[in-house]
Design goal:
heterodimer, A: 294 residues, alpha/beta, 7-stranded mixed sheet, 3-stranded antiparallel sheet, 17% strand, B: 267 residues, Rossmann fold, 6-stranded mixed sheet, 4-stranded antiparallel sheet, 11 helices, 10 strands, 39% helix, 25% strand, globular, disordered N terminus
Amino acid sequence: MTDQAYNFAYLDEQTKRMIRRAILKGIAVPGYQVPFASREMPMPYGWGTGGVQVTAACLTPDDTLKVIDQGADDTTNAVSIRKFFQRTAGVAVTEATVDASIIQTRHRIPEAALTEGQILVYQVPIPEPLRFLEPRETETRKMHELEEYGLMHVKLYEDIARHGTIATSYAYPVKVEGRYVMDPSPIPKFDNPKLSDNPAIQLFGAGREQRIYALPPHTHVVSLDFDDHPFVASKADHDCDLCGAPESYLDEVITDDQGGRMFVCSDTDFCQSRRAAGHVGRLGQQTPTMEAAQ
Amino acid sequence: MTTAIRTLTADTDRPLLQVQGLSKYYGNRIGCADVSFDLFPGEVMGIVGESGSGKSTLLSCLAGHMPPDKGRVIFDTAAGPRDTVTMAEAERRRMARTDWAFVHQNPRDGLRMGVSAGGNVGERLMAIGARHYGDIRATATDWLGRVEIAADRIDDRPRAFSGGMQQRLQIARNLVTGPRLVFMDEPTGGLDVSVQARLLDLLRGLVREMGLSVIIVTHDLAVVRLLADRLMVMKGGHVVEQGLTDQVLDDPQHAYTQLLVSSVLQV
């Protein structure tokens, strides 16, 4: 039920208009961080206040919303944001990636291929890819303006010098359409290739840092690397223990204190739909629906 | 003295840097006023003067860190002489990364303290488009050797280096792209005398070897005596005397220069 005390999707119309303007500007200049007047939201910073504001500005009553947190639909962050919009906007919600028109995500891109017309909203903690190398905001803006991105490679150089390989495994910097260097939010670098040429609209919202940036559909996105140390989209070298999928990004789960562990898909919707279709992994059991079908 | 020994080549006919009527005011106070000089390729010019005489203001204006209020700074770029004061910022900063170098007094200002020595030296290479890790590392190793830093220190942070090593690292980081003009702001300040002597020796070697043009700001007359071909003495924002180093130091004409020269203890 929509709570009648709130405007549709919590934010007032003027605020949504302001955010939509920032989104449009972001889409017009892919990868550019557009400042916006981030509002206080009824949840703490770090819980996706930026993503929530972007989602609120994009929602219409006919939308179907999906919220994931590290790929999972059923963790605290995902559940609370989904409930928030059910209460304040009364929109339909789903756990199925294919049924959703707006997907708010924390640190993953769903395994199922996105389609035209879908919007993927990322929660971004720190939008500035150069932040930990150059602490001055005035200087990083100047570097974006003048396309001085040598420093980004210094970070990758340091990785190789210290670890022998590019050890950055999440928030891996990318270059958008040969112009802006962008932080893709802390998604695993396994997901980086999916940023490029994606038919969905990808929006990034950073609430505390007050920035919005965007990738319009079919934008060319390249992960930075060296000629002799090329970018590799890595994942745990296993199949999913529940659904047996060899190609999905995996979470490692410690199961006992004897060194027992299992690897499961981080995308719960992907894993469940595979198991429903009859795939079983090393430790998987037949689900009740499968037994019923048999 | 040193200029006479150096053989003159065809392109030493044209000045590398022409400064014309450069002025910078801080409100009503003068930073530096009406400074003009030419610097030729391979020439080392010293700027001396007491604290507050406008040396550092002048250097900042020349290097494009601060916009001057009046005057022109014409640099002989690959595409002919250009006024760096009016050129676009993007272009000026690109030049600062390639053709120019700036050595700060405090190595902390010129180095990235959280980045390894190799990364510090490689940064300028990566900024101009080097994308091959092996090549960058080989060049960095080579440069560390040239400034007398052991190759096994390449992955150490500058924090782990002594003051003299940090300063040498800063010099390597600046010279790696083969600049033609180097600005130095008190490069030996804060170092003890024996380390200073080694650093000066190293600098003199590099300047000769690479044919660098250098503008060096210092209040240490020994430094200019060793390094500089020409000397400019500043007081209260004005240039009070200029000429060949030995000439100015051995036969000072202006009262302030006489005071400056006589203030140095002869050991």
